[in-house]
Amino acid sequence: MQAIGPSRHEYRLKELPRLTYLFLGLLFISLGVVFAWQAWTQAHSAIVALMLVAFLLVPGFYMLALALRSRLVINGSRIAMRGAIRERSLDLSEVEGYRTVRMPGVSGLNSYTVLKLELKHCRGTITIQLWVDCDGLRAWLKQLPDLDVRDRQVLFTEIQQDQELGATSQDRLNALQRARRWNIVLTAAVITAAVVAVAAAGKLRLGAAVVLALTPILVLYLIKREPLLFAMDAWQKDPRTNLWPAALASGMGLTFTAIGRDFVSLTAFVPWIAAGSMAFILGFYLLGRKRPQSPGFHVVVPVLGVMYGFGLMPAFDTLLDHAKPQTYEVQVAGMHTTTDSNSTVYFLDFGPWGPFRDENSVTVSQDEYQRTHAGDEVCFAVHPGLVRVAWYERTACAAPQAWQSLPLK
């Protein structure tokens, strides 16, 4: 802290976050310079160099500026927060109140807390990092209402007065406990359906996928039916129960169900993915437009919407495709592997065949990779897909494969 006058004080970031931002900023800048120079001089690719600058140098300079410039200034009734780029200042009389928001950690650090100062007349918010937490800030905040506590009390009052939730005030509060139990049951059921959709086959897999596809509709129904008991992203002090784990399990289950199939071209799904994601996002935003949402809501809903849209139609394109496939017998043109720090992935390489006009590869197990040789024949069944996005799978060939023949005596 630096005292500049009897009522003016400046507070910098605490030592640990400041050093962390300095280290990360210098690291990103160094990597950006090295990689961009290599791309420019060795690969002669200006586009790659510019991408590296955008993804490494820009964040690096931002974190460096954040470590060096960040200040919290308190001057009587005025407060100012200077970030990496700009500084925002306001008077106590302009602030409606404050909220406490938990944020994910940075570079292995634990999660941390920020303050959101909400301005009057819906003029936006100002974020204050609690890495500059100090006695001066706490004394300044004591003059403002905690909006989380206020909203929690408002919700409790609405619950206690809602006669549809029970005959007495205690019965209505007990409804909150029942809602939490129903949420646990729902989440467990959706997780089970996700496991079945990924691991099972046939009608069982289709039934589980249908459950996953209908889960967001059920979540929307519960929020609309009992808005005082259920929420998509209840904040820390919100008494309602969170339904986002069930929605997350449905999106992940559909996504992994789709990932388990090989498609000729995933780009053909882009319109379907966009439509599914927008339907998900608009549904929750239209339903929640009459209530103020936590900052996490605007992150959770778009992320879950994209995940749901990505998995929905690709999964049903394969599960509801009952058309007769076309079989191709393809010769193995070559083989290769890719290795990282954790595992090795094995590929069989093929020339153009069937729906593929260019060279292509498929992943196989290590055992099959070792039993296969260039020139062997491999068979594929190509399915047209429910929405005419073709997908394919390995199938048995009519003739024995080279690796299946007995050695000559």
Quick synopsis:
By secondary structure, this protein is α+β, with helices and mostly antiparallel strands.
Which labels suit this protein?
flat; 409 residues; alpha+beta; OB fold (Dihydrolipoamide Acetyltransferase, E2P); five-stranded antiparallel sheet; 10 helices; 16 strands; 22% strand; disordered N terminus; single chain; 47% helix
Describe the structure in your own words.
- The protein has 409 residues and is an alpha+beta fold.
- The chain is built from ten helices and 16 strands.
- A six-stranded antiparallel beta sheet has the order 11-16-15-12-13-14. Strands 1-2-3-4-5 form a five-stranded antiparallel beta sheet, with helices on one face. The chain has a three-stranded antiparallel beta sheet with strand order 6-7-8, with no helix packed on it.
- A hairpin with a 4-residue loop joins strand 4 and strand 5.
- The longest helix is centred in the middle third of the chain and has 31 residues.
Q: Kindly report how far apart the N and C termini lie.
A: 87 Å
Give the CA-based shape.
flat
How many individual helices? 10
Q: Which structural class should the secondary elements be placed in?
A: alpha+beta
Number of self-contained structural domains: 3
- Rg, alpha carbons: 28 Å
Strand content: 15-25%
What about the largest sheet? 6 strands, antiparallel
* Spans of at least 5 consecutive residues with low confidence: 1-5, 104-111, 401-409
- Provide the succession of SSEs: EEHHEEEEEEHHHHEEHEHHEEEHEE
Helix percent band: 40-55%
Give the tally of β-strands.
16
**Overall pLDDT metric:** 83
How is the largest sheet built, in terms of strand order?
11-16-15-12-13-14
